[in-house]
Please model this.
Amino acid sequence: MHKHETPTGLTHVFGRRSFLNRSCAGSLAGSMAGMSLMHLLTKEASASSASGGILSQLHFPAKAKRVIYLFMSGGPSQLDLFDYKPLLQQKQGEDLPDSVRMGQRLTGMSGHQARLPLVGTPFKFDQHGPSGAWISELLPHTSKMAGELCFIRSVHTEHINHDPAITFCQTGHHLAGRPSIGAWLSYGLGSANDNLPTFVVLISKDRIDQPLYARLWGNGFLPSMHQGVPFRNAGDPVLFLRNPAGVSAESRRKLLDRLAELDQTQFQELHDPEINARLAQYEMAYRMQTSVPQVMDLSDESAPTLELYGEDVKNPGTFAANCLLARRLAERDVRFIQLYHPGWDHHGALPARIKQLTKDVDQACYALITDLKQRGLLDETLVIWGGEFGRTNYCQGKITPGDFGRDHHPRCFTVWMAGAGIKPGYVHGSTDEFGYSAAENPVDMHDLQATILQRLGIDHERLTYKHQGRDYRLTDVSGKVIKEILA
Model:
């Protein structure tokens, strides 16, 4: 935007079109440039405010209508949950061979250690499902649904610290400022329910051991209407939805109507697409005054359903309660539902702490998959479970009887997926015998993101947004669909 002084001394703000016309003194070139820019801005504003999203049609038939992403923040230990390595028990206490580490940089938490002693899991493993997937005794309910899951054991990333690793998982880049995956889907596909946000965030209470920044579900440089909306687990689910004391629904409606008139006047002057995005958010907040209390009210859930999710489902803000809310949001066609369950950063006391975390999520995940399937929703819902990286095969600090910790490990970790045409009862990829590196069919985070978009009918290379002179996309400049896991 530019300013100039009027004869009356008032400062007038005008847009880029006005600036081009003035600077070109009404020349044909200036008018053409202004008209072209006006068309571009108006088209962008219209697309950004439309509930249908920027894509006029999908790039190919979609298998998924929505995504439920169960993000285990902190980095779950794949070696104690899904990646069984008996060699580590055999070599317990021995140093990690240099030939295995191959000079990989370590975090400051274990990089200074004189020794890196290998440590095996104290938990029993058994094979389950048609794929014979190895699953820890810590996950008995997950074991029961192994036939529904696709385990990807060869996921890897470049980042060894939480902030860049989580940011990379959620936005496709390790630096802050890019749109989150849910925002990209909102921008591309728009909303399938005009009365609820396209992108909802649910965070488990009582497990926060590291910060979760709002930018992880932010819109980045996309219009702000595409950012995720966190639902709180206490008090009002969304702040400032209620009308203030003395303000009726009718007066709020009139206020929004008058505000819309003013906003449109401002848009005609400035052609800023964020004006329309802001107005769309006001309207969504008005509709959410009714829709959000309805989705949060569990009184219509049957006793068998509540029993399926376990006792924790009755405690708002627990992972179990959030999984049930995720199912309720899914059946109301919310496009992207993100659950964060922090607490998996087990640098010490891993055996005791991981028992608590798996107790939090095991039955709830089983219930979610079972519930979706019973209601005919699993075939059109993509469910993802995983963290930002894995844990080391060596001990951070000293191994003591019944106690040890594992440091961050980016070279290999496990993610599972289910529903939406993902191959059920299948294991993709493998790690070396030490569980240190991806050995077969390595999967980068951009590959995972490309596959998520593909399930929704989107070519990850074609969903782009022009910003600061170049086209951006979720997968940056890499990524390929993991075709082997598609049914």
In short: Confidence is low (pLDDT under 50) at residues 1-14, 16-50.
